[in-house]
Amino acid sequence: MMINKTDVGHRIASLRKKLSLSQSEFAEKLSISTQAVSKWETGQSLPDIEILLNISWMCDITVNNLLDHSSSFIDNVLPVDRGYRRLGTLLRCPCCKTALKLTGFTNRVGYICEQGHEYEIDEGVVYFGSREIPGELWSLWLRNYEHYQIEAKHPGLPRYQEGEVPEHTVIWHEIKAIKPRTILDIASGTCWGIKRYIDRINWPCTIILTDLSHRIQKWNRRFFMEEHNNPYVDLLFLACDCANMPVLDKSIDLVTSSAGFESMQDKWKNGFSEAHRILKEGAFAVYSIALVDDFSDSGTQKWLSLCKQYHCLNENQIYDAAKWSAICLETGYRENKMTKIYGEMPAPDSDEFPFENQVMRWMADYVVVSRKG
User: Fold this and answer.
1) Phi, psi at 29, each rounded to 5°
2) Which domain holds residue 14?
3) pLDDT digits (tens, 9 = 90+) for 13-44
4) Residues 6 or more apart in contact with residue 48 via CB below 8 angstroms
């Protein structure tokens, strides 16, 4: 095929303008010079293959169609975006464990397995029929989307900003070094962690957010579309049980979690094992976790006593760094790097537990990088 540089340049210019980007803004997102973009658009040169792939991702067009507008391209007519098409190659049925495929139902779109189990895309969220933990319907605390926005934009407790280098900065440095093409976030909640690095991603990436609550996921999707729309990133939303993930074995490049495992309460071990199952061999889980400094310390013992009285934490779910490292090894993570962000809070003088929510905030905070295999 003879490539017409002038025609390719015109197509690149048209696609750039559809994204409402100047040449310099387009160049910045591609990590190249403005002069290079100018040369493409005037037909003087062509992008190299890596840049072509990035342009095709950003502009939602095949490389063939970018280079040769007349080339045939057979596309599925289902009314969903490319992310959910791609998701069809990553999902499995949580009931029978067979692969799911994207399909159309009567006036609906979703996924179906060979056994006939159906999962609808409802308001942009793939819904697997999950329900929140009985007695812990935390999403009802957020009364409406306006209330959700207030929470989503809140900077968080000062406690969570402690440490010489904040937790979210440490996590971002790890993600940037890996540059994964697929990220799955466990028990996302209102996506406290994802919001702090999504705007920095400058490579093609699919991010899958998972949580029990369809209600919260619906609001997460709206918030990201309005506040954090990154053309490099396809954001996908699953309302599912993270202890029985509807994702194929060895299909994900990176798992992340910002206190997500511990938020699963009695199911946290299942969630941690599921993260291991879905990761590709040699891939990483990068996550934060609350641990105690020293079980023998009198301050730690005081905190544990108060937690027991308050019935807010199960002592069997509280670990120090050594015990957590052992759990990582038992699960199959062979390399585990632990970075302490900040230590335990001093125990209170009173005999009353001081927190009504976020009850693990007294514990030390760690970022852990666990490698599979």
Assistant:
1) -70, -25
2) 5-67
3) 988 888 889 999 999 989 899 999 999 999 99
4) none
